[in-house]
Fold each of these.
Amino acid sequence: MATQITDRTVLNNGVAMPWLGLGVWRVKDGEEVKLSVRSAIETGYESIDTAAVYGNEVGVGEAIRESGIARDKLFLTTKVWNADQGYETTLQAFNESIKKLGVDTLDLYLIHWPVKDKYTETWKALEKLYRDGYVRAIGVSNFHAHHLEELRAVSEIVPAVNQVEFHPLLNQRDLLGYCREHQIQMEAWSPLMQGNLQHPLLLELAEKYGKSPAQIVLRWDLDQKVVTIPKLITPERIRQNADVFDFSLEADDLEKITALNENKRFGPDPDNFNF
């Protein structure tokens, strides 16, 4: 069980990844993303998750350098965007990302979405980057089990991570089970349901544990051994969401939150997305 912000899960290749990280989706490049990343690092976060399509890799890299924290103390993730998928174009996109970030290597590189007829070739590019030592771990994002099965049939390396929309209204039990069976670490994006936290049960549990509804949901993630990367901007909220390591949810309460599932997505369905 994660009991402090520096606690890490061990991925299927032996690399240690923090349980809690900062997501910067829809955070503007420049001062806004730099403030977010700096505040997170000052609070003790050791994982930053960005993506090429977010358009803020430059600011993320600048904030990391300005923090004064040694590069090897931070876990940095970015993703190849759909338009860049394919073997050669993925390699080019990776080079562009590390140039913008101002780093030589990444801790985790992900395929952002399973673009049909492209993601297997994209994965082969990620395998090359991994073998050549440019990336410590490779994984995918928004992959259903059938995408992972197709990848498994043609690949040599099992994805270390599958980053998907995951929250109390979309608990993805079947996919979570598949990932556990194949030693793929599940990671949650939009864990806070894009702010839709005013559910009576979450409010009730927030009062019971003396926490906010957001903290209850993040603890629910961690208690299920799901890595979580809430998107945050303000220093106060960044600090609040890190304050989830001094309690755990009782088994009955975990089950109650899980039972809220409605298979409701706030983002696109990977099987019905305009790639």
Amino acid sequence: MMTRTLQDVVKLQSGAEMPWFGLGVFRVKEGPELVNAVKTAIKLGYRSIDTAAIYGNEEGVGRGIREGIKEAGISREDLFVTSKVWNTDLGYDSTLAAYDTSLNRLGLDYLDLYLIHWPVEGKYKEAWKALEKLYKDGRVKAIGVSNFHVHHLEDLLQDAEIKPMVNQIEYHPYLTQKELQSYCVEQGIQLEAWSPLMAGELLEQPVLQELADKYNKTVAQIILRWDLQTGVVTIPKSTNEQRLAENADIFDFELSIEDMEQIEALNRNTRVGPDPDNFDF
């Protein structure tokens, strides 16, 4: 994937343009640290911000966006903002209401991407109908899912009028999910990685450290570059300005085919988050 700048985008099925690289804010609490992280990311050139209702931080994200675009001299339309409907709100009317609640908290008129957060059995099809309505009504630029396995997607597609445009999943060198990735490529569903650095657990991995030394980069930069070269959108989390800048400094080098294969070979099917086939929330 010849991604060259922080503003490079992939065109989704809807025609919406989604940046390959963005900021995730999972487990960042409301408050000045969150607002400053969003503002700093925008100042550094990030154009994608990913949050979710369950994170409990949409208000701070919204404030960071408003202050960030003003300081950077850009418009709301220059940003790609994602949120997600939580499990307790899955259902047709409740999902529509949850969307409005998220918009109100964020202080925005629309979202660029709205996702079903988890594939709760017996609930996600009704929620998907609501997302389709939001999309058809022009209230959201793109719709998708998160944490869906192949069988969840196959089940959803039996009744869906519109295909999910994105599937956001746990994806890192210890969990490459090749079957799911192949299926999504076939279906035109863009994969997006959450926890790309495995919550920091991979930062001392020996093979990745060797590659970091070889390319004169950090382990995080090696992993994030690997994401892009495998065709996966990535949204690492950080609130530290130096780390935000460092994470995004991955457009001046390219991993060789051999080194990409070395990283692929690290797969252990190991998760830091729940398995979408076995969660109880």
Amino acid sequence: MSKESVYVTRPSLPPLADMLPYLEKIWQTGILTNGGPMHQELELALARYLNVPYISLFSNATIALITAFKALHLSGEVITTPYSFVATSHALMWNQITPVFVDIDPLTLNLNPDLIEAAITDKTTAILPVHCYGIPCNIEAIQAIADKHGLKVIYDAAHAFSVRQGQRSILSAGDLSVLSFHATKVFNTFEGGAIVSPDEASKRHIDHLKNFGFVDEVSVVEIGINGKMNEFQAAVGLLQLQRVDAAIQSRAEIDRYYREQLANVKGISFLHTPADWSSNFSYFPIEIGSEFPVSRDALYHHFKQHDIHPRRYFYPLIPEFEMYRHLASANIANLPEAKKVSERVLCLPIYPDMPREVQQKIVSLILALAQGAEA
């Protein structure tokens, strides 16, 4: 097999020959940004593909999150998960909003609805759940709590591109959903992101905010930011959208192979998957239990010695980082499920063009340890 290092995922790149006609069009128009033709085409194409009402493209998902909170006029406190990438809570802090961490459901690893109401105060303005690994949150329960207490709901849907529950896109849940199109995601524009809106007025407001608050050449109506996706990113997105179904299918085959090969390994377990969930196979997390001969961290370092680089998503927990430790909700004693999972989950490499020999090497390293042999 190749001696190249293998990472948890790798960017999916469109063929250069396919990219050249798009670059020529950009050169011909001379429009590089500011909602050019590629940008407009990608917004419409994504709205159709994802079956959502309106979508606004952004330069990256963190700026999209920051803008989403501003669009909904959030303040005070927002209830969120401790088990996510730091961008989720960082975006709150950039808006001078205090994240309030609530423990996760041990099956889905998503924000536990049963614990949300106890965390609501007179300062709470919203709930910010994450569809962790693309597994849908308990949308109905969260919305019922939000309606009861007059709160907004914004979903961090960075992992949830094209995910459905039944026949419904989970991106239509809540007041807004935010997507990531980072290079390592199922669908990417190298860097990029988007906000899914329920109506035209919300989209118009968001589009003003992401463009400095401009309405026209001489009118600025609010304090906005520069979050625009450029034409090069949009061109990549248009090409990637042609290939995303095949990419998801390839990921599904790798997912199936891992499950078949590791199904009977003591101490290795897979996450709970909802029966009506349409996965995008964005990650392949396994949980390392006490029956496995070595710890999660020992397995992680063993892989690295063999040029395999899985990820401990998400470790440490967000509230364990220095800038969050002062918060009352950051007390790890109140987040036992998140803490346990953060020390046991390992995401194995999964990407569309991953060679079978690499998959076999990853499985063999696990099986050798399970059998007490040195790989």
Amino acid sequence: MTMKINLTKVILIGFITGICNGIFGSGGGTVLVPCMVMFLGVKENRAHATAISVILPLSIISVLFYFYKNMIDWGLTLKVALGSSIGGYIGARILNKFSDRTLRIIFGISMIIASVRMVFW
């Protein structure tokens, strides 16, 4: 599926996503998915899958910085990576079983819970 997309929009969305990832450790889901859906017209399922693909190079760049600053707890990283890998596999397998609307609702509820947690905890 080829789409004609405004390159300036794509680069700006990528830039903002990268800044959010570097500062907050997130951005692929919280910034990239909604931007791809709203501003680029990408279907919800494809936006989620694309965001996951973008997160890898984003994370590599960020982890290099954090590595050089000696900010990584490697023991914790390995334990969380194990659970995350299993969860990521399961999530990728079931992604296409949800409609765009259901994904949007699940994603929205997740963002609301995350924002409330960040404000009050």
